[in-house]
Amino acid sequence: MAEPRLDFVISVRRIGKPESPTPCAGASFFGTIGGHPMKRVFGARLSPKILVLVIVSLLGVLAFALRSELTTTARPMAARPALQPPRPALSPAEESYIRALWPIHGSVERSTMRMSLGQIFYKTEDLSRAKLKIRVDEALLNYRRAESGLRALEPPASLQTAHEEYLEAVRLFQQSAVEVLKMFDDGAMTICLPLTR
Considering only CA atoms, which of 150, 146, 147, 148 is closest in space to residue 163? Predict the structure, then answer.
């Protein structure tokens, strides 16, 4: 196969282009309209007056921004609200009370979860009536043990209110278990699931 001639390739590339003897020949970068020189900027023509006006405007904006930055004093930061001081460490009496309360609380928490899940599983028919009764009986027994354990504790004065509230909550759990057990005595198998707070 014969290679194309170089002069033929160059002439083909110039088809449709005006012939210019030098690279600078052709339309001038500066043109005139009505005798006034015009400068081409991105394909548009700008007169020197407009160009000077744009440059002066940009310099004015730059000067204003620079002046406002340099003369602006540091604004004081808004004062943050004072944080509450951290709670002091537990006293030895509070710590011993909490250590004694912890196993009781764990038992109450586990019993509550087992009874609640048992009621849900019963409602979805994943747990039999007999197994639900066993769970409720165990929960009631644990709630009664927890109440007697709580009565045996002597809370410090700072935790007395919390102790009374927790004791009342355990009594409400006992009452809830008793209500569920009534369902087994009545034979009515509708369970109202307790609302949690």
Answer: 150
Nearest Cα residue to 186 out of 197, 195, 194, 178: 178
Q: Are 150 and 127 in contact (CB under 8 A)?
A: no
Q: What are the sequence ranges of the domains in the chain?
A: 94-186
Q: Which residues of 16-47 are buried (b: 16+ CB within 10 A; e: fewer)?
A: eeeeeeeeeeeeeeeeeeeeeebeeeeeeeee
Express the helix, strand and coil content of the chain in percent, nearest 5 each: 60, 5, 35
Q: pTM of the entire structure?
A: 0.52
* Rounded-to-10 torsion of CA 32, 38, 43, 49: -150
Max distance between CA atoms of the chain, in angstroms, equals 113
Helix (H) / strand (E) containing 184? helix 160-186
Q: Which two tokens stand for residue 37?
A: 């020189």
Q: Note the pLDDT tens digit of each residue in 80-127.
A: 777 888 888 889 999 999 999 999 999 999 999 999 999 899 889 999
Q: CA 121 to CA 82: how far, in whole Å? A: 49
Q: How many helices (H) and strands (E) does the chain have?
A: 5, 3
Confidence band for 197, pLDDT divided at 50, 70 and 90: very low
CA gap 51, 114 in Å, rounded: 83
CATH number of 94-186: 1.20.58
